[in-house]
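User: Okay, second chain of the day. Same drill as before: sequence in, structure tokens out.
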Amino acid sequence: TVSAGEFLLYEHRLSNDTNGTNYTSNAWRTVTLNTEVYDTGNHGSLSSNVITLAAGTYRVTARTVIASASGTMYASVRFRNTSDSATVANSGQFAQDQDRMVQPICRGRFTIAGAKDFEFQVWPGSQNGYEGKGPTSSKGEQEVWGSVYLEKE
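Assistant: Same drill. Structure tokens below.
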């Protein structure tokens, strides 16, 4: 018997035409997450950019929108189990030119035996990075600068 998974979605949402977070270079920075969009099985919670997940096996896809503040930037994103200091998904390194928006993505599958805390993180390399720059063109809709989508198996 195949059963459907349960789904969780957390996002960094801001009002229309609102710039996102600025990130200082050369360290892992926590991606802002401020909205629980849904959690169909009540397996997680969100507080101060930290997602707390219940025990189980999950598949994660996490993405953010980032650009270089000046020059070419080398960057990475990861989804990190901060309770155990373990990375469960990582994008690897990518390069981008100044003021060109990219959406780096990391994907992974992991199992946790008990409740654990997670953060979605970005590493802007040699240049500072930022989420967006206004005015944006979402045509009256909310800005979504980052998201973490999870499926509980």
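The chain has a mean pLDDT of 85.

User: Thanks, on to the next one.
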